[in-house]
Write a structure and sequence with these properties.
The chain has a domain of 194 residues. It is 78% helix and 2% strand. The protein has 15 helices and 4 strands. 43% of the residues are buried. This is ABC transporter permease. One of its GO terms (molecular function) is transmembrane transporter activity.
């Protein structure tokens, strides 16, 4: 019944009106305006090299943003994604240095990341803790595991075979494999989130968990598997980072969760659950990437950059709060 009602509303709403009201349209306008302004401010902005660098910089983070967006839609949040990315890197790197081939080591790293998601999902759905506290504890514990595995020393993986390095450093007809993988993940989960019945339950659970439960949706199962998905994608991103940089540092990914959450919220994912799109989240991280590139080209001190990003996040959360309040009234 709930799905039928939503489908009816979508049919009755004129397509031009839906496009005009999309948050994505506003983000595209802001990104284009920034690009135009920066084209006058710096001659180096509108260059193929700069755009390639921006795409490379947010492509791997974009994979993590996909999982975070789906988790935010269901009403959760994961503060441990940066630590999980690092954990996948150092575990896979350590196994490779111990003699395992990099493909098997990477698979184990991704599966171990999924296991972390299972543990956090257990504490959320069975024990009854909320996502914030659970993932906060997970962030500290997993970061500690990274330090234990590496003994605080970065791992140099220069002996990785060329075939594995090609995943993070190679290209196909001039297009880096990293960007191809990123777009493949985005298109897959954007399609599933819009079309697959299983992932549509994410919206129903996030919008009104009690109503979803009464309509027969096993909401705890939905929250559990979305938590696992978020950690798995973070682990996958960690393996790509390892391939790209040929190293694994135990402090990698510190503060990454700020960018990830900011991108998803800027893109329209509500902290109250029930709304958000993959496209919006990707536009959100693209906006942050454009801002970062602009600050660098304008020689803005690195000490100011985090503060500016924090202000952007605060603004996005404020907008989300007022929009949610307006819908509720």
């Amino acid at each position: 019944m709930l799905a039928d009602t939503m489908g009816t509303k979508a049919v009755r709403s004129p397509s031009w009106k839906r496009i005009g009201s999309m948050r994505e349209a506003g983000l595209i306008a802001i990104i284009l305006a920034l690009c135009v302004a920066m084209s006058f401010a710096s001659p180096h902005f509108l260059t193929l090299g700069n755009f390639r660098a921006m795409l490379m910089s947010f492509s791997v983070e974009g994979i993590v943003v996909v999982g975070m967006t789906i988790l935010l839609i269901v009403g959760g949040i994961d503060l441990a994604v940066g630590s999980v990315v690092c954990f996948a890197m150092v575990l896979s790197g350590s196994l490779f240095l111990a003699g395992l081939d990099p493909w098997s080591a990477s698979l184990i790293g991704i599966l171990a990341s999924a296991l972390i998601g299972c543990v956090m999902g257990f504490f959320v759905t069975v024990v009854g803790l909320n996502h914030f506290i659970t993932s906060l504890a997970g962030m500290v514990i997993v970061r500690g595991l990274c330090l234990i595995i590496t003994k605080g020393t970065p791992l140099s993986l220069f002996t990785l075979p060329p075939a594995f390095k090609a995943v993070g450093q190679g290209s196909f007809h001039g297009i880096p494999y990293v960007i191809i993988i990123f777009f493949a993940v985005v298109m897959l989960f954007d399609f599933l989130l819009r079309r697959a019945t299983a992932l549509r339950k994410v919206f129903y659970t996030g919008s009104n968990e009690k109503a979803a439960l009464y309509s027969g949706i096993r909401t705890n199962h939905v929250k559990f598997w979305v938590t696992v998905l978020c950690s798995t994608l973070a682990g996958f991103a960690g393996v790509i980072y390892m391939s790209r940089f040929g190293a694994a540092t135990p402090t990698f990914g510190v503060g990454m969760e700020l960018n990830i959450i900011a991108a998803a919220v800027i893109g329209g994912a509500s902290l109250n659950g029930g709304s958000g799109t993959i496209l919006g989240a990707i536009l959100g991280i693209a906006l942050l990437s454009v801002v970062t590139s602009s600050l660098v080209l304008l020689n803005v001190s690195v000490y100011w950059q985090d503060m500016i990003k924090g202000c952007i996040l605060l603004g996005a959360v404020s907008i989300d709060h007022f929009l949610h309040k307006r819908k509720a009234s």
